[in-house]
Amino acid sequence: MELSGQVKHKTTAQDKGKQGEAQIYPGKRDWSTTYICEYILRRRKKKKRRKRKNFTEEEVGYLLDGVRKMGNHWNSILWSYPFQKGRTNVDLSRKYRTLQKGNSPRKV
């Protein structure tokens, strides 16, 4: 059993004079568990990342018009306007947030 990097080992009768008592030896690890975890991680396939696409001027117009009409209902905006394939509701919300940061006066 592993406890914060330490493993409980059964001791012999010579250790501490008590038979079967569990002792904790610092620095010892259960390498079989580590090997199992490494094996599992190696078998996993990495997901392909989505290609980043810049917003076109037309899409920015759709986004601003959609926010005026529907508020911050990003899925509704996404479904109502012809955005690029692969665009998500999170993309829309992040783009709108960055547009708002650019329009607000900055504190010096």
TrEMBL record:
Residues 1-25 are annotated as: Disordered. Residues 47-100 form the Myb-like domain. SMART domains: SANT. Pfam families: Myb_DNA-binding. InterPro entries: Homeodomain-like_sf, SANT/Myb, TERB1. It comes from the Eukaryota. One of its GO terms (biological process) is meiotic attachment of telomere to nuclear envelope. This is Myb-like domain-containing protein.
